[in-house]
Each structure stands twice: as C-alpha cells, then as structure tokens.
Amino acid sequence: MKIANVFLLLWIGINLSAQRMSIFINQLGYYPGSNKIAIVKQIQPSTFSVIRLVDSTIVYEGSLSKVYYDSDSGDSVRWADFSSLKTEGEYIIRLSSGESSLPFRISSQVLREVSYASLRSYYYQRCSYELLPQYAGLWSRKAGHPDTSVIYHTSTGRTGTGRSPKGWYDAGDYGKYTVNAGISVANLLQLFELIPSYFSDSTVSIPESGNGINDLLDEVRFELDWLATMQDHDGGVFHKVTTANFSGFIMPDADIAERFFIGKGTAATLDFAAMMAMAGRIYRPFDSAFADSCVAMARRAWQWAVANPNVAFKNPSGINTGEYGDNTFSDEFIWAASELFITTGDPIYSQYLQSKATSLQTYTVPGWPNVAGLGLQSLATVPNTLEASLKDKIKSAIISRCNTLKSEINSGGYRISRTGFFWGCNGAYAQAGVTLIYGFLLTNDSSYLQAAVELSDFLLGKNATGYSFFTYYGSVPVMNPHHRPSYADNIVMPIPGFLSGGPNPGRQDNVPYAYLQPAKSFSDVMESYASNEVAINWNAPATFLLAAIDFYLGDKQKYICNPIVAKPNCPPSITLSYPVFGASIKQTDSVRLQFTLNDPDKNAAFVEIYIDGKYFVTVPANTKTLKLAPMKVGEHVISLYAFDAEGKGHEKSTRFKIVPVVSVNVEKNSKFLNIYPNPAENMVMLTILPPTNGTLRIEIHSLDGKNLLQNEQKVKAKSSVNIPIDLTPLTVGTYVVTAYLQNQQLASAKMIVGK
User: Fold this and answer.
1) What is the pTM of this model?
2) Which of 47, 76, 116, 692 has the highest CB neighbour number within 10 Å of its CB?
3) Is 744 part of a structural domain of the chain?
4) Residues acting as catalytic residues
C-alpha cells in the first residue's frame, strides 16, 4: 500500500511521537462492509477516534472494549470497533491518550492486490523455468533444475533415470513434494470450483495469460504436469524429487547437485489420486484429453493404494530433505474417494464413502497430514449423488466447526481462532479462514464471512508481533524470509506475495528470538526456518481466503494485477550493535543503546523504541546512540521500529539480562562461613555455623551475578553444618559463595576454582 505524499507528510507531522506498534490493525485496511476491529495494547485509554488523513477530520468516535487478557502473548488488550465506518479513504486510529496507529485504507479493493500476489507466488516458485522480466519484474531469474535426468533412488525400487520437469519448489528449498502439493493444489482448485470467475484469463499476468483459460488453472496446470511424472508404472506415486541434502542459499540455476526420485507411499499415492480426480472434472471443458488422462491416473493410484494401504514414508539413509511423513491414511482414503466419486460417479467410491459414514460426520480443518476435510468440503459443495441424508450430516459437521471457530474469534484477546502457534501456523489460520468461507457458502450467514475477515486481518498485521506476514504488503512486512531466491538475488525487497510461517515457540532453528511467548515467537531473519520460511501449502489457503473475501466484499471491478516492475519502496533496516543478544549487564550500569539504519531509499524518518513491549521514545532517524536509565534486575527486550517517509517500517529486537551486583565479603573465611580448600579443584567443603534455626540456602554466582549452583536445607542454631559441593560443572575462575538464612544474607566470600 502506498499513500499520497501529502497524506503521509500530514500523518508524520501529527504522529511523530505516537506509538504505532501499540495498536494492531490490518495494515492494508478494510472493506466498507467488513468488520473493522483494531487491537489496542495500551489499556489505560477508554475511547478512540478515527481520523481521515487528507484533512485531519475526526470521522468516527467510539469507546474501547473491556480489557481482555491473551495468554498466548501475555498481553492485556482492548478492542477498538469501528465497523460502522464505511466511507472509503485513508485513516489512522487515535486513542484518547494520544497514541496513533499505522495508516490504513477503507476500500472496496483493499485485499485485491495481495490476493493476486499470493497466487503469483507460485509463478515465482516454478521449477525448470526461466522467469522473464515482463512477468517477474525485478525478480526475473534463469531457469534452474531442468529435472530431465532425475535418478531413481534405491528407495523407489527402480534404477536408472527419468524425467520430472516443471512443478513448484515446495518452500524455501528447491525440493518438490507430492504430499505437500496435495493440499496446495486442492485449495486452489476448490477456490476455482466455488468462484470460477476470479483470477480470470489475463488478470494475473503470467506467460499463459491470454489462452482463454482462467489464470489460476494455468498456474495449477504447471504443477499437475510435474505430478504426472511422479506416478510409477504400477500406479504408485513417488514421494518427492530432491537432492540428497538441502542446497546452500543460492539461485536455482546454481544448484547443480544430483536430483532423485525418492520413495513411494500410500499418502503420496492417495493425494495424487485426489488431485488428478479433481483435475479430471475441472479441466475437461478446456482440454478433454488431459482430463481423461488425469482420471485414468487417479484410478490407477487408487488401485495401488487399496493394494498397499499402509506404506508409510520415511527418509531413507543419506536423504536429509523434507520428510512429510504420515502414518495414518484413513483421511487420504476419504479425500481420494470423495474426489473420484464426484468426478466419475463410480459406485466403488460411493460404497467406500458409505462404509466410512461415521467418519464423514466429523470435520477437522485440513492440513497436509489430515486431508479428510478437503473431501468433505467437495462433497458439501460440488454437485454429486451421495445419499442426501449423509450429505446433510457432512454439511452440519462443517457448520459446527465454523460455529466453534467463530466463537473463538469473538472471545479471544487478539480475535483469532484457537488454532495455536507452531511451525507453519499462519497457513493453519488461513485454512481456518477457508473453513469459515465454506460455512458462509453453506448457510449464507455473513457472520462466518466476517470471522474469516478477522483471520485475514491477523495475517496482515493484527497480531501480537506487529508484522504483516506477507512479503511486500503492509507497513511492517516480513523482509527476510527463509527463501533461497529472495536471499540469493541480492535485491533488498523479497519476492512479493509469500506468506511467512508465523510464530513458533518450538524455535527449532536455534536462532535468537527476542520474544518467547507463543504468539510472539517470531524472528524476521533468513536463518529462521522455524518461523519465517515460506511454503506452497501456506500460500494456497491464504490465496483462497483473500480471493474469497475480495469476491464477496469487493466491488468486482478492475480485476487485473500487473507484475511489479518499478523499484519497490524498501523500509530502513536496523543494525543493533548494543545490547547484543543474550548480554548480561550489571544493575548499576546504564544501558547505552547503539544502532544504525541501512536506508537504501534514503528516506528514513524516525525510530520508535519499545522496552518490554511498552513504548519508550521516538528519535530521529540519524540517532545512533541513546542512554537509558539503569534497569531492573531480570530479562528485558528492547524493540526498535524504523519508519521511512512513506510509512514503511521494519523491526529489530534484542533480549538481554540485567544482573545484580553482588556485594562480596573479601575475607577468605567469615564468622559464619568457611571454604576449604580455597582455591579448590573438583570438590569443596563449605562449613556453616548458623546463628538461628531456619532454612539455609547456598548460592554460587559468577562475578557477573549469574546463579550457577544452589543448595538448600534446614539447619539448627549454632550447630555446624558441612556441605560438600561438586565443582565439576564450573570452569576455572573466581566465584562468589553466598549463604542465606531465612532469605537473609548471612555471609559471602570469594572462591577460586582451578583445574
């Protein structure tokens, strides 16, 4: 989103000391008819206003909600509901205490560009394909991985080589995976079946545009053509095409390592059957021969799976790329049978579904390991001859789940479903939004659509991190995704339209995370594959969600999105040199914040500084150092948000400790404490003479105050106590031994450890 300079100058002028990151909004904005609810982290104010940027006019005033506590973020928040404001324009929210939000729009096309960009992310993921400037803009590149001589790994039971070109790179790596293609292709084809006019021919600007076929179908066909190469002669389907190990962060054409067909399994084969069955009915009006071949491949895959119902995939020895392992296949059988039945009407598939009637009455939001819900969605909405009462029960199951999702959104502090936070959770939130779209279609109840809107708000900035999780889109977008082409192309702005994985308290990548709360465990650095990777199965439901919202709430005009070819606005990035991550700083020392801005566009405006999530100060962009007062003992987080004159920003945070300064009795032995031997090596004996009864606690600290060893026991007055301490966990150095009686310091002395 870009706002006219006159608006931006006005906004900056009236908000220079504002706390932009205390008010969380959809950073693109809202449709006139959508819910518009901002999350306010400052709980002191009680009212808010919405101000039109063009003339600083207050156009809406309202009261903030009661305080809600959000356990996943640790935040206490209020809601600012301005849903009744429907006039298109550019605005900010102003709290009664003076803080203001990032700018946003109310527009009948507000999510259109990002929905198109989300679909276009697949074009940028094309394998064996050169991306030309007229379609890829700045992010054009050479073709990589021709995959014309892929080696059959021993795990396939084959020898020699085969062809497997085309398809989409799966995520931030260069592998192609059948299982993850499953839910990705399903989401996109289901979107087409529900809204066939969206992404119509020549609106997405890809090389196939102009051929008379919906551009979404053209893009999915590129994946289906690859998938067709993954079926073995016996009908089973190979699990993936990858190298033995992940490549470095290089461009596709630079990765010349050997590629392998790897494994074969029930999950991949049934996912393949479902995808090809869908393609058989959807592509028939455009290419009947292709449709026939898809149905034939789907039938053969089903037959193989029936004969091999429990073949689980695990990475064979020496293969270390993504596994997508799954040991339960009942859901894949349901999905494949559903799509084959809808496409062919063959009784063999309806009989299978009838035999699983109980399972069909329970709906779970789909994910790549659990795809039964995809079949239920198709059975509920695509014309078919399934027994009517069973179909009604399927619809009721979907609606029941929608009711739960809606209730969770309406009651949670950040107004999201209780999907949770884990690897790829943003894709799961988008998928929950897709479920709500189905609820809307099945009931015509707009409350489901509005709940889906709020999940899109979450993805675009109304969340505890303050990030828009889409590359390029939003005031504070993800800038450093774990995505090899976006890193290796030496362009500051990553490729537009990718959805980052999202907060993940598992933090499996071991990179520094400033915040450890589940909803905030996110790090916008390239190395964070656990929170900041991209993947086709996350963009697919996001594309569905954004496109459906735009279709049902937008103006249905100007459906065209040209590729971005101009130099994009890049927010200033921050290098934070002190405090370094994990530093320990003495309580008596002031913290001298030291940072610099990398500003490729030369238009950095100011930096907002937050301490432990609370606004501290706004400083000019040329500030390089700032002295803070001594801080309390404990762990702290400092966050800096640098904004430029066009309203784009970026964040950098650091986590560090303030440690107590230990007052040390330098006497080797005191009246109450004796250390022997001192210096010591592997063992030391502490002798304590307590003056009163009570609980004795011994602590051994490093000189910077870090508590390393501790011992606690009950003692009697004037009764000498000998406490042996194992020193092997300690390194050579000087330490402080402190004795506490009833939590009051009794004695303290230095101890030297040698080896």
Assistant:
1) 0.87
2) 116
3) yes
4) 173, 482, 524, 533
